[in-house]
Design brief:
By secondary structure, the chain is mainly β. The protein has a single domain, classed as YVTN repeat-like/Quinoprotein amine dehydrogenase (Methylamine Dehydrogenase, Chain H), CATH 2.130.10.10. Helices cover 0% and strands 42% of the residues. It contains no helices and 31 strands.
Length: 355
């Protein structure tokens, strides 16, 4: 599914959004933080961006990919993967070994019914060989899963017979590259929406999958789970709602403490619609969560029991490393937040700095 994204942030000490110049007017939907200075982003019309100092951005286009929409990016420092989402051969995977000096087209979807939604990589230490998965909408009644082979140089489809059947009208959302996530070397999850709001889980690196239902709002093509994140192999969060009615609260957030087998709605009020959610990494924020959406940004410091702050401005995607959070959105919007010590007295300020 092809939609916008929302990110939910929960931090032990709130920080201020610091807008940055992106030097592009494109809509940005992918962001990947490697460390406090190396960050990548991606968006429409074949656009990718990177920063090597955490502040200054370089924007460019992949040659020959100007018609593509890069919904996902994964940074390994100077090298990075880009995921293009779209029908048929508009879904592709690119790789650069060094800051976009050269791009390799690693994979092109040849099935006209296929549509890639999101990608995630194992090994959070960024150790090579690179191991990743890509989730695509159902083809012939089952979700498509691509896995890396040859140390991340090539990709191949997993056996669809080891995947539970998709329900009629069920799909995944290509909103913020967070419809899938991984923990460690073998644990992976992805989420769905439409006629169902389910969580698929794998414990063997994406070779085989099981599925669980959730209480998240679903039923129409605009409803369901948009994003998933895990703090460890047992504790995770999902978010979603109805992107056509982002102002509506409801059954939009849930948590698990058994690795995704069962899910419970959270009691926090003002849930709104969230299309992306992430744990804020770093020792000072072990239970902090950040969420952003096209119409709102939010923070929780107590595992989604309550909200500490809401901002009326939203983003399409976000990522966190070492207590640093980056968010990206429409009109080239990029902002950075860093954990501070001023607590709830801090005020968030969000503004577009696209140029």
């Amino acid at each position: 599914m092809r939609l916008a994204a929302v990110l939910l942030l929960s931090v032990t000490a709130l920080a201020q959004w610091q807008p940055q110049e992106s030097h592009t007017p494109e809509s940005l939907r992918g962001v990947s933080v490697f460390n406090q200075s190396m960050v990548w982003a991606s968006g429409t019309h074949g656009t990718y961006l990177f920063s090597t100092d955490g502040t200054t951005w370089t924007a460019a286009q992949v040659p020959g990919a100007e018609s593509l929409d890069f919904r996902g990016v994964k940074s390994y420092g100077f090298d990075a993967f880009l995921l293009a989402s779209g029908p048929g051969d508009k879904s592709r995977i690119y790789y650069t070994p060094y800051l976009g000096k050269h791009w390799d087209l690693q994979f092109t979807n040849s099935d006209p019914k296929g549509f890639f939604d999101c990608m995630a990589f194992f090994d959070p230490s960024f150790a090579k060989p690179l191991r990743g998965i890509i989730v695509g909408d159902p083809v012939n009644g089952r979700f498509q899963i691509l896995r890396t082979v040859n140390g991340g140089k090539t990709w191949q489809y997993s056996d669809p017979q080891k995947m539970p059947p998709a329900l009629d009208g069920e799909g995944a959302f290509a909103a913020s590259n967070t419809c899938a996530t991984t923990i460690g070397k073998k644990n992976a999850w992805f989420v769905t929406g439409g006629t169902a709001a389910r969580v698929f889980r794998s414990t063997d690196g994406g070779k085989s999958w099981k599925v669980s239902s959730t209480p998240i709002l679903h039923g129409t093509p605009s409803q369901g789970i948009f994003s998933i994140a895990f703090h460890d192999a047992r504790h995770g969060v999902i978010c979603g709602g109805d992107y056509q009615h982002p102002e509506q609260s409801g059954a939009n957030l849930a948590t698990t403490d058994d690795g995704g087998k069962t899910w419970k709605l959270v009691p926090a009020s003002q849930q709104k619609f969230f299309s992306a959610i992430a744990y804020v990494s770093g020792d000072v924020a072990s239970n902090s969560i950040v969420a952003v959406g096209s119409h709102v940004s939010g923070f929780s410091t107590d595992g989604l029991q309550s909200w500490q702050f809401f901002s009326a401005t939203g983003f399409n995607a976000a990522d966190s490393k070492m207590g640093i959070v980056y968010a990206v959105g429409s009109d080239g919007r990029i902002a950075r937040a860093q954990l501070g010590t001023c607590g709830l007295a801090c005020v968030m300020r969000v503004e577009s700095k696209a140029q």
